[in-house]
Design goal:
Layout (H helix, E strand, L loop, with lengths): L5 H4 L12 H4 L4 H7 L6 E4 L6 H12 L3 E5 L5 H12 L4 E6 L6 H13 L2 E7 L3 H4 L2 H4 L3 E4 L5 H14 L7 E4 L3 H7 L3 H13 L5 E4 L1 H10 L10 H14 L3 H13 L4 H16 L5 H15 L5 H14 L5 H16 L14 H5 L38 H14 L6
Parallel strand pairs: 1-4, 1-5, 2-3, 3-4, 6-7
């Protein structure tokens, strides 16, 4: 038992034992009902690492009592897939679970199509990437996509206490869980990483009495030196370091973490996609060209593989890290989404509604709309927001040269309506 990692020893065997994902596994939910009725479609589980994708797949196989095959897209190929399909022809209701299915190329995914379509296998795929981008449409259309949510703080603390109380190895120690912040922060919401870190902290001393504090956790964690492993925890730690280095305007750190990923054989599209997101999330209108370069980088690395792609990735990473920063667009859409959630479907003002029929025109749809290009400066001072939100400034320009120009321009147009 001691040779098996704590996260594996604590892996739930039933839905009731699972922590988190209530939207999928609570009484009456679609997935739980399907499992209870033994009627499981092919499924793609999409969510961050360590939130239960593999566990739910195992529970499904256990509940349905059917043959269960597991492949990793990182280490398996078309030959492995075909071998499972051949074995499945001799059985019934076979489940094939493929971890990291987004790492299968088109040819490998094509090999699954016929067997899924004919019902020879029930496919369950797990991915941390948006399946719309990484799973071919023909296969995706034959699968039900379920989104798994990150575990919250309460979920993670519950897992810690559950492990201390129930795990036979940890029971050999007297553990006082005095502080949990460091465990939770270092694990990044990954239950597997959290539990394995707890075990590392507890077993780092020869003493049988262990007081878990944030300082002690940091002390133990910093001694654990791990190489980049695109199959393991470091995959997510290093992409996080890469993103934060660019966000923090440090091109030197950015190219170092980029080199670590390249050396580890990381997928070029994975790296380029993260830079594309950062170009909008952290740079935005402080430098609109950043999005153009990041998009061009994504297109380029799709055409050119390693080793040449490393030059393109390096150029883009240095540019993004050295660029002016602004998260104003991120904050603006977040505020607007909050307003939609809070106020619901507020009516569109009549004067900016579409009026495609005579009746709608008679009801004053579109009446009073002022065509901006018919006014001086191509601008007319009129209301575009629902009445309840009049005067709400979702967008506040950032404090950088480009957006200061936008601030002056918008303030000149809207005078005192918006507080620019």
């Amino acid at each position: 038992m001691a040779n098996i990692p704590l996260a594996e020893r604590m892996r739930p065997n039933t839905l009731d034992e699972l922590v988190g994902q209530e939207h999928l596994i609570s009484k009456g939910s679609i997935l739980r009902t399907a499992i209870e009725h033994g009627n499981i479609p092919s499924i793609i589980f999409w969510g961050p690492p360590g939130v239960g994708k593999t566990t739910i797949a195992n529970i499904i196989a256990h509940e349905l009592k059917v043959p269960f095959y597991q492949l990793s897209a990182i280490s398996s190929g078309v030959k492995d897939v075909r071998e499972v399909i051949e074995a499945a022809r001799q059985q019934s209701k076979v489940i094939l679970f493929i971890d990291e299915i987004h790492r299968f190329n088109k040819g490998q995914q094509d090999a699954l199509l016929g067997a899924v379509e004919k019902g020879i296998i029930t496919l369950i795929g797990a991915t941390t990437e948006n399946p719309s981008f990484e799973v071919i449409s023909a296969l995706l259309s034959r699968c039900q996509v379920y989104v798994l949510k990150p575990l919250n703080k309460n979920d993670l603390v519950k897992l810690l206490h559950k492990a201390i109380e129930k795990d036979e190895v940890l029971k050999q120690y007297k553990i006082e869980l005095k502080e949990t912040a460091a465990l939770i922060n270092i694990s990044g919401g990954d239950a597997r990483k959290l539990l394995n870190l707890l075990e590392l902290v507890v077993t780092a001393t020869e003493k049988k009495t262990v007081t878990v504090t944030d300082d002690y956790v940091m002390q133990v964690a910093q001694k654990k030196i791990a190489l980049y492993d695109k199959q393991g925890e470091q995959h997510y730690d290093i992409i996080s370091a890469f993103i934060k280095s660019m966000r923090g305007s440090d091109p030197n750190a950015a190219v170092y973490w980029l080199a670590r990923m390249i050396e580890g054989g990381e997928d070029v599209k994975f790296i380029a996609r993260r830079m594309l997101i950062l170009a909008s999330e952290d740079i935005g209108n402080a430098n609109p060209n950043a999005l153009l370069l990041a998009n061009a980088t994504f297109d380029a690395v799709n055409k050119i593989g390693y080793p040449e792609s490393q030059l393109i990735l390096s150029q883009c990473a240095i540019y993004l890290a050295s660029s002016a920063k602004s998260n104003s667009a991120t904050v603006a859409i977040g505020a607007a989404m909050s307003a939609v959630s809070q106020h619901g479907d507020l009516p569109v003002p009549l004067h900016i509604r579409n009026a495609p029929t005579r009746l709608m025109k008679d009801l004053d749809y579109g009446k009073g709309y002022q065509y901006s290009h018919s006014f001086d400066g191509n601008f007319s001072l009129q209301e575009y927001l629902p009445e309840k939100l009049t005067g709400t400034a979702f967008y506040t320009p950032g404090k950088n040269a480009r957006e200061e120009e936008l601030r002056k321009f918008l303030k000149g147009l809207w005078k005192e309506k918006y507080n620019y």
